[in-house]
Amino acid sequence: MNDQKFTLVGAGPGDPDLITVKGVKALEQADVVLYDALVSKELLGFAPCAEHISVGKRAGRPSFLQQEINQLIVSKALTNGHVVRLKGGDPFVFGRGFEEIQFAEKYGIKTEVVIGISSIMLPGLYGIPLTCRGVNQGFSILTATSANGTISSEVSKAAKHSSTALIFMGLSKLDEVVAHYLNEGRGNLPVAIISNGSHANAQVVAGTVSSILDEARDQKPASPALLIFGEGAAHAMLNNQLNQKEEVV
After folding, report:
1. What is the pLDDT of residues 8-25, one digit of tens each?
2. What is the pTM of this model?
3. What is the pLDDT of residue 64?
4. What would the pLDDT profile of 53-78 be if each residue is shown by its tens digit?
């Protein structure tokens, strides 16, 4: 049996080609792979001899509790050897990766982190600059949903002060997010929704704070989705532009 080890690997934002070389090497050395629902199954091909276990958590569907995942990491490491936890995006950005590392270390298991390309980078794929000279010099990153399922208090702060806000887990709370921005008199601020970013079925919905609810009702973007509230969203490549780009390529 291999030495007991736990490696936390970021799989990237969805496109399997966006995993790092180091992440692929970790998969090749795995005895067990615990993978998330949003991870491309193609990546499991790099670990053909390992045991593959789906531990994905999706809103509104039966799923593993975080404590169950933590226990599975430890039990599989102690009995099988090298466990790779394959998580979408970067595991330290709304990924609870730090909790899993801490839990494994309590049992004396050697740990390693392989960072991944975060979904924070997705706007650039669709023409949206997060910073732009003469427009804004920074951006904020937040979740729209708190631990108890209500809207995060960070949303109201972003609506007041942020030049550009990237909002995770916000599609189901889009109306509440918009209400905060409208209350701050920012109805003309550009907004974009990136659905299934980096996948072949990616969808980009754009508008302003005042119009984005109607646009979303018409175009019905699906989760997972990233919300961008900021001037850069005015440059979003829309679905027809994406299709034209694919045809040219």
Report:
1. 999 999 999 999 999 999
2. 0.89
3. 87
4. 999 866 555 678 999 999 999 999 99
Torsion of CA 202, 120, 210, 163, to 10 degrees: -150
For β-strands 164-168 and 82-87, DSSP reports them as unpaired
Active site residue ranges = 36, 57, 169
Give dist(CA 233, CA 222) in Å, integer.
Answer: 18
Task: Work out the end-to-end distance of the chain between its first and last CA atoms, rounded to an integer number of angstroms.
Answer: 47
Q: What is the DSSP string of 33-99?
A: EEE-TTS-GGGGGG-TTSEEEE----TTS----HHHHHHHHHHHHHHHSEEEEEESB-TTSSS-HHH
What b/e sequence results for 64-83 when a residue is b if at least 16 CB atoms lie within 10 Å of its CB, and e otherwise?
Answer: beeeebbebbbebbeebbbb
Give SS3 for 1. Answer: coil
Comparing 150 with 63, the larger pLDDT belongs to 150
Cα 48 to Cα 41: distance, rounded to the nearest angstrom: 12
Strand, coil or helix: 132: strand
Phi-psi group of 49: left, alpha or beta (phi > 0 → left; psi -120 to 50 → alpha; rest → beta): alpha
Give CA–CA dist 242/236, Å, rounded: 10
Question: SS3 of 229, please?
Answer: strand
98-124 pLDDT, tens digit each: 999 999 999 999 999 999 999 999 999
